[in-house]
Amino acid sequence: MAFLFYVAGPSGSGKDSLINGLRERLGGGTSVLFAHRYITRCWKAGGENHVELSEEEFLQRAKAGLFSMQWQANNCCYAIGIEIHSWLNSGHSVVVNGSRAHLEEAISHFGERLIPVLISVNPDRLRQRLLTRGRENESEIDARLARNQIFEQQLNGRVVELTNDGDLATAVDHFYAILMDYTGMTANAEN
What range(s) does the Guanylate kinase/L-type calcium channel beta subunit domain occupy (predicted)? Predict the structure, then answer.
């Protein structure tokens, strides 16, 4: 069975770095595909490789039924395209950068095909990453950390947890092992 690996975690947890690291580790020639998100944010904003849409373009695509999932966060609209259904139905597992707040809907939509992967980070380390990033002041960071603690408590036991507190290569290795466990791929089948 093909699975949808739904990667979620707080800002600063390293979702983009982990997804990119897994993509590099797998290379081409596997049955795993990586979905780009459609976002109403400038492509130059850094982070993930996404498809930039204006708000009008986003609404047009939403009305046309071209999104499998969509949500709003951080003053932007986010979506995953319906192409992932074709990919899953053709036997390809898919990795997406999801939203913790949208997880319940994703679970109800994809059922047993959905593998929620929660990226967790020690709160002190996460605070430092957010401070270093410099996009928010300390009170905004405190609010973000409090929301993250609530999300993690609500999701306890319902997700595959992937800790990204230290070396990125170690976390990518763990992510790779999770993917191998679910897909049944072997290390020799990756290239």
Answer: 1-183
pLDDT (tens digit, 9 = 90+) per residue, 98-127?
988 888 889 999 999 999 999 988 888 888
Binding residues: 9-16
List the helix and strand counts (H, then E) for the chain: 7, 9
pLDDT in tens, 147-178: 878 777 776 667 899 999 989 999 999 999 99
Return binding residues for ATP: 9-16
Model pTM? 0.86
Determine the Cα angle at 33 with ends 170 and 121, to 5°.
30
Q: Are 126 and 12 a contacting pair, CB within 8 Å?
A: yes
C-alpha to C-alpha distance for 111 and 85, rounded to whole angstroms: 13
For residue 50, give the 3-state DSSP assignment.
coil
